[in-house]
Amino acid sequence: MKVVFGIVAVIVILAAAALGYALSPSAIAAIQPPAPASFQQAEVKHGAELARLGDCNTCHTVKGGAPYAGGYGLETSFGTIYSTNITPDADTGIGRWSEAAFARAMRQGLDREGDHLYPAFPYTHFTKLSDPDVKALYAFFMTRTPVKKAARDNDLPFPLNWRPVLAGWKLLFFHPGRFQPDAKASDQVNHGAYLVQGLGHCGACHTPRNVLQAEKRDDFLEGGEAEGWTAPAIAGNAMPAPKAWTQTALKDYLTGRYAKDHGVAAGPMQPVAQNLSEVPQSDVDAIVAYIHPGMRQGNAQPANAQASAAASGSSGQSGQGAAIYAGLCARCHEQASPSRYSEGLNLADSSALHEASGRNFVNFVLAGVQPPEGRAGPFMPPLAGSLTDGQLTALADYLRQAKAGLKPWDDLKDTISSVRKTALAAEAQPQS
Ligand code: HEC
Ligand code: HEC
Ligand code: HEC
Fold it and tell me: pLDDT by residue (tens digit) across 196-208?
């Protein structure tokens, strides 16, 4: 089924690419870079908040590099796509883009010249933006410091490196159009829906994708992937969180604080939460109002019976895992530990241990948890250098049974090696 779909899709894409090439959209005329003083202060300030809600900084800035100057690599299953320079530099940035050209990029995924953009840039979500929000974002970006830095070539195989192919992808999977409010919902819930579905592009990570990397619209927020992590389901029946999310816990989590029964946002969720801690709280409240009712509640597993069964079967494997846990983890993750000095979650409550895949668990243990640069917050040391794959497997097998009452993950070996590889690739990201 998947294969047939893939073949049909490839044919449609190539046909549409030919058509898209023949009918390629026209360029929008270049302008003189507008003077920063021509934009209103209030608009620029609002644009700054919108830029946080849209995580423009996360994708358009490399570690140690100038803000928004691009060059950050996004890994896809087809290859690496690099973000572009969106500072107002006239030659290498968007300095010569009119507001109309900027709006067309955000809503239709076309650059100023009329070339198609890769959906790694989440215009499939940004298409829902309102006119005033596009205007404010434009004001914010045109008043940034221009930085001269040319875009990096993408690392994609033929024919995917040929932009007209994207015309076909868009024909199949891109649904342009403004946000449609739900007449029956409150203004607050509609604002939250606008942010979640649009600017906040939560679905870009939390919604599963098909073989051609398009989000499955019927499974909105039911669990996806991001940079070697699982982005857990945050709606529907597949939610891994064993304890109910209260509105307070959700708000704490989304703004980077320690959430009772859920811990802190880590991995690719950390920059999202950091950004949400710097926008008006009414925006976060709206996101919570929209997301929370869709979360399945009271999901505790009947862990105890199985857990004690697992613990009593003291095979060598589980004995080794238990010993590692007692030596390396318990002092921070056991409430009763006398030497507990850091706020680690009771691992029985961790979504990571209840996921179908062990990826997040492995990511947590290998990378640890560090607060965002320049901030204080819960800390767990990275253990990539301290545990062999065998020790990590013994630990995972033990915790899955003892804390989650679930059977061990069966593909853990592959998971560990792929997480180790992704971590190395991330370290090799181009710097400024
Ligand atoms: C998930 C990563 C991601 C996020 C978040 C993101 N972008 Fe991008 N953006 C990209 C990538 C990758 C490209 C390059 C796409 C291509 O080359 O086809 C891009 C391209 C663009 C372009 C086209 C520039 C050009 O020279 O063609 C604009 C404009 C843009 N982004 C603006 C924004 C704004 C504004 C935000 C925040 C509201 C934002 N982006 C958030 C990844 C991202
Ligand atoms: C760049 C990818 C990405 C984006 C965008 C993103 N998330 Fe996440 N999210 C993740 C990942 C990865 C995790 C798992 C992180 C962890 O366990 O610490 C996560 C975890 C979560 C969790 C906790 C789930 C659990 O069971 O522990 C919630 C709630 C959440 N995200 C909500 C949101 C909302 C709401 C948005 C949009 C405003 C959003 N996320 C945008 C990647 C993303
Ligand atoms: C120095 C204290 C410390 C040690 C040692 C430690 N952790 Fe942590 N751990 C933390 C903190 C703090 C967090 C972040 C708060 C949270 O989310 O639980 C965390 C988070 C986690 C999470 C994610 C929980 C969630 O869903 O949010 C897992 C899984 C985890 N640790 C497993 C382990 C394992 C396994 C070990 C031993 C190999 C270990 N930790 C050792 C402090 C520690």
Answer: 999 999 999 999 9
Question: Is the CB of residue 406 less than 8 Å from the CB of residue 301?
Answer: yes
Helix (H) or strand (E) holding 82: strand 80-82
Judge whether 73 and 425 are in contact, CB under 8 Å. Answer: no
Task: Name the least confident of 226-230, 244-248, 305-309.
Answer: 305-309
Alpha-carbon gap, residue 333 to 348, rounded angstroms: 10
Higher pLDDT, 316 or 85: 85
Helix 281-291, helix 247-254: angle, nearest 10: 130
Q: Is any atom of ligand 2 closer than 6 Å to the C-beta of 205?
A: yes
| Strand 73-75 relative to strand 80-82, pairing | antiparallel
Domain range list for the chain: 8-31+38-173, 187-294, 303-427
> Against a cut of 0.90, is the pTM above it?
yes
Nearest Cα residue to atom 20 of ligand 3: 344
- CB of 206 sitting under 6 A from ligand 2: yes
Within 13 Å, how many C-alpha atoms sit on residue 150's CB side? 3
* CATH number of the domain located at residue range(s) 303-427 in this protein: 1.10.760
Query: What is the spatial distance between Cα 323 and Cα 387, in angstroms, rounded to a whole number?
Result: 13
Handedness of CA 216, 358, 202, 427 (dihedral sign): negative
In terms of Cβ atoms closer than 10 Å to its own Cβ (0-12, 13-18, 19+), residue 129 is buried
pLDDT digit string (tens) for 305-318? 344 444 444 455 67
Asked whether 93 and 85 are in contact (CB, 8 A), the reply is: yes
Pocket mutation for ligand 1, best pick of 49, 61, 82, 83 (most atoms within 8 Å of C-beta): 83
Give the ligand with the smallest distance to the CA of 59. Answer: 1
Can you read off the two tokens belonging to residue 263? Answer: 């811990």
Closest CA to 199 of 295, 97, 126: 126
Total Cβ atoms within 10 A of residue 157:
8
Q: Whose CA is nearest to atom 5 of ligand 2?
A: 202
Dist. CA 299–CA 242, nearest whole Å: 5
